[in-house]
Specification:
32% helix, single chain, 15 helices, 6-stranded mixed beta sheet
Length: 480
């Protein structure tokens, strides 16, 4: 048996087949970068995205033959609205990165509705106000998973799963149904909303694909990576170090006690939903991880490629007291401060580019430990180890620094991306490829386990973070 996965990220689409061993067999990719017409505005060409999904999926099926099911993994909270009859998008899709509705979010706080501009809710209202002010058209709303399922089913399926619905800002605290009070406040007709379904389970046929395989899984990218790294039991966690950093921890069937954000800065999430039962988790967020390495390469020119940072950092035994707080976009968990900024401390006349590069890698690692500590506090589970994927997980200096700062082993993913695998596991689970989540968890085999071999002064680190905070007080005052 094998399954097909369509995995839509923020800048590209990947289609791949997954075999019974959980490994990728064949894959195809297309770039679908967003458009940035103005700083803070990030738009998606939904038609091009749909075409990329169909093209890559068809190519993979042509190379590997028929599949038993299709899974869909996607960036979360990006918002697309289209005409139900024609299937044509209405206006541009609005990326989760789009910030055009910051003002509306602040206004809604005064009405008792707490929303963030990266959530779907105010993006949907923006598109409806622009293209259906009277709310008389027959339109459909969807996050990217919904749009891809609609495309693959040729308009027969209008659904989203609980992991994606949970980050729209439009569901109840339990995450299993749309919030009528929020819909009324925002003037969002229920008719535009997709049906919330399980993350694993057959919802329709992918009639646009050869063989018409069943669509058997939908899941948000971070939750898909969580399952892709075998984190299927309470107390298991992963961190994805990509452009930003996301830690997701499985909590269990009891929802975290906080409705919006915990005392340690984590958010409650739906980890997955199966047979109508939700398994919850918590999520901790670092707004900039690999972005800091890109800064070293593209802006400072200290190295030619991200891969070169490891060799340069290794050329010195330590950072000689240099500390870097990676906050070019502000701080996330545990201290949400949009006015904080990246801070480089401890420079001397003897500081070299190698010391700076090492300090940047170690700074991202220290922020990773901030996420671990916050997730332990808000999630109620101690983490004896942590699993990592994402581009930075391929950097040995960074991973060793993470293990040292965390004082616990770090398990490396067998590949830099596990989002595709997670959606494949959920699709396979729905059609009997695997019997249960425990069997999927048992497939996990890390590429390596990195043990701690040193230590960091965490008190000094916390002092550095305090120095980076509130650099722009007006932005620091923003609270979402």
């Amino acid at each position: 048996m094998r399954v097909l996965v369509v995995d839509v990220g923020s800048s590209g689409v990947r289609a791949a087949t997954i075999g019974e061993d959980g490994h990728v067999r064949h894959e195809s990719r297309r770039l679908t970068p967003p458009d940035v017409p103005f700083p803070g505005l990030v738009e998606i060409d939904a038609t091009a995205l749909a075409q990329a999904a169909l093209t890559t999926a068809t190519e993979v099926l042509g190379a590997d033959g028929p599949v038993d099911a299709v899974g869909i993994a996607s960036q979360r909270a990006s918002t697309i609205v289209w005409d139900r009859a024609t299937g044509e998008p209405v206006g541009p899709g609005l990326s989760w990165q789009d910030l055009r509705t910051v003002g509306e979010c602040l206004t809604l706080q005064g009405e008792g509705l707490r929303l963030a501009p990266n959530q779907s809710a105010t993006k949907l209202v923006n598109l409806l106000d622009a293209h259906d002010a009277e709310r008389t058209r027959d339109l459909c709303f969807g996050t990217v998973d919904t749009w891809v399922a609609w495309t693959l089913s040729q308009g027969a399926v209008h659904v989203t799963d609980a992991t994606n619905a949970g980050v729209t800002g439009l569901v109840t605290d339990d995450g299993d149904r749309w919030d009528d009070a929020a819909l009324a406040t925002l003037d969002v007709p229920r008719s535009v909303l997709p049906t919330i379904v399980d993350s694993t389970g057959i919802v329709g046929e992918a009639s646009a694909l050869p063989g018409t395989p069943p669509i058997a899984a939908l899941v948000g990218d971070q939750q898909s990576s969580l399952i892709g790294q075998g984190c299927v039991r309470p107390g298991q966690a992963k961190i994805t170090f990509g452009t930003g950093g996301m830690l997701d921890l499985v909590v269990g069937e009891a929802r975290p006690s906080f409705s919006h954000r915990g005392d340690a800065g984590c958010f409650p999430i739906v980890a997955w939903q199966r047979d109508g039962t939700i398994t919850y988790g918590v999520e901790a967020i670092m707004m900039a991880a690999g972005t800091n390495v890109d800064w070293l390469v593209e802006d400072l020119g200290l190295v030619d490629t991200p891969a070169d940072t490891a060799a340069l950092a290794t050329s010195v035994s330590d950072a000689e007291g240099v500390l870097y707080v990676p906050a070019p976009l502000g701080l996330g968990t545990p201290r949400w401060d949009f006015g904080a900024r990246g801070t480089l401390l401890g420079l001397t006349r003897g500081t070299t580019r190698a010391h700076i590069v090492r300090a940047v890698l170690e700074g991202v690692a220290q922020r990773g430990v901030d996420l671990i500590e916050a997730a332990e506090a808000d999630g109620g589970h101690p983490l004896s180890t942590v699993r990592v994927d994402g581009g930075m997980s391929q950097n040995p200096v960074f991973v060793q620094a993470l293990a040292d700062a965390a004082a616990r082993p770090v398990e490396l993913s067998p590949g830099p991306e596990r989002t595709t695998n997670g959606a494949g596991f959920l699709a396979g689970l729905a059609v009997g490829m695997w019997s249960d989540l425990d069997e999927i968890g048992d497939l996990w085999q890390p590429a390596a386990v990195v043990e701690p071999s040193g230590a960091f002064d965490r008190e000094r680190w916390r002092d550095a973070v305090s120095r980076a905070a509130r650099w722009h007080p007006d932005l620091s005052a923003l609270e979402f």
